[in-house]
Each structure stands twice: as C-alpha cells, then as structure tokens.
C-alpha cells in the first residue's frame, strides 16, 4: 500500500514536471513573434542611431557645399584678377605689346622694359640648374637684347650680387649662344678683359654690377629668367 502510494506520488511529480516543461516551451514559442520590451528599446536605440547618422551626413554635405562655394569664389576672384591684368597689359603702350597679349605670363615674373623677367634673389645654383629651373617656371634663363633692357633689369638687382644669364660657349670656345634659342647671342656687355676663359674652364656668363663675365658653370649664383626670347 505504501509502495503504491509512493509510486503514484512519483508519477504525479513526473506529470507535473512534464506539464511545466510543456507550458514553458509553449510560452517561448508564443513570445518569438512579439518582441519584449527590451527588444523595443534596442530597436528604438538603433533607429535613433540611424537618424543621428543621417543628420551627421546632412551636416557633412552642407560643409562640402560650403567648401565648394569658397573654392568657386576663389576661382572667380582669380579669373577676375587675370582679366584685370590682361586689360592693364592691353592698356600699356609697349613696343612688343601684341607678343605679350597673346601668351600667358608665368607666375612671379615682373614686367621690365616691355618683357617679363623672374629674378631669383634668394637661392643660388649652378648654371645648368638655373636653366632647368627657368624652364620649369615656363621661361628660360635670360639674355638681354640691348642696353636698355640690361639697364632696366639692373635697376631691379642689388649691387654686389652675381646672376646667371642664359649664355654659354661650351660647344665652341668664344661663340656664346643663347640657352633659349641655341643661336649665337647678339648683345653683350663684357667687363674689361672679359670673356677671359681663365683656366680654360669659364664657359658660362654671369651678370655682376651691370657687366658680363665668363666664369665656371658649376659656380653657385642667383639667376634671371625671361618669359620670351
Ligand atoms: Ca672670365
């Protein structure tokens, strides 16, 4: 009798446990399609994050717009400046006026005696490097066409400094050719007893206090570029 009641009791416990498990599984199944409160909060947080991301993107696009406007304005200002310069050049009575109008002036070149020159006053270099630098700037190492040009450029140079000119006689001793054209140069203003070719290695022309010297091409000097031959 005691054994039977123990057996029934055990059976009852097993049934209760099975029933409880069944209800738990049931409740889990039901809960799956309906998010819990926690899930709502997570989704809400994610939506808010997406919204914040959109707002940040909008702000960033606005910034890009503003930067583009600034750049456009800078381009417009530059164009306006070029137009003003062009008008000023056209209004200037220069002998070789039409030549200057028809081409762009390299930046940093200054108008001297109806042409454009760039005077390098702070860096010294060899003759060959000066030729290359002037070419990179859109010009060539300068030569003077006449005394007027020489005197006008000289007014822009401090006394006591040497500048390379675009003249050398490396190919044929005594025949000084223009670096820009490769043709024999026509105008010189040599210092007394120059060109001397002292030591037989002075093949490049420097300009010092208004006069020309042949000196070694690997000396380090300032230089003058021109925009046209
Ligand atoms: Ca010399």
UniProtKB/TrEMBL annotation:
InterPro entries: C-type_lectin-like, C-type_lectin-like/link_sf, CLec_Tetranectin-domain, CTDL_fold
Keywords tagged on the record: Lectin, Secreted, Signal
Annotated signal peptide: 1-19
GO cellular component: extracellular space
PROSITE patterns: C_TYPE_LECTIN_2 (PS50041)
A Pfam family recorded for this sequence: Lectin_C
One annotated GO molecular function: carbohydrate binding
Domain C-type lectin: 112-226
CDD domains, alphabetized: CLECT
Primary location class: secreted
Location in or out of the cell: Secreted
Protein name per UniProt: C-type lectin domain-containing protein
């Amino acid at each position: 009798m005691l054994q039977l009641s123990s057996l029934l009791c055990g059976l009852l416990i097993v049934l209760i446990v099975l029933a409880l498990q069944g209800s738990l599984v049931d409740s889990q199944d039901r809960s799956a399609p309906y998010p819990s409160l926690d899930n709502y909060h997570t989704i809400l947080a994610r939506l808010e994050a997406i919204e914040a991301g959109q707002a940040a993107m909008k702000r960033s696009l606005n910034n890009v717009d503003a930067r583009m406007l600034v750049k456009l304005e800078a381009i417009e200002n530059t164009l306006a400046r070029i137009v003003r310069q062009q008008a000023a050049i056209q209004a200037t009575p220069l002998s070789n006026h039409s030549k200057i109008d028809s081409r762009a002036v390299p930046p940093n070149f200054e108008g001297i005696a109806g042409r454009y020159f760039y005077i390098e006053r702070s860096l010294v270099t060899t003759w060959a490097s000066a030729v290359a630098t002037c070419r990179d700037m859109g010009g060539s190492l300068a030569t003077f066409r006449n005394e007027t040009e020489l005197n006008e450029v000289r007014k822009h140079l401090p006394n006591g400094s040497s500048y390379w000119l675009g003249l050398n006689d490396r190919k044929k001793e005594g025949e000084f050719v223009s670096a820009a054209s490769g043709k024999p140069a026509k105008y010189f203003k040599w210092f007394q007893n120059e060109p001397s070719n002292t030591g037989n290695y002075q093949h490049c022309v420097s300009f010092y206090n208004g006069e020309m010297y042949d000196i070694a091409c690997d000396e380090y000097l300032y230089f003058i570029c021109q925009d046209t031959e």
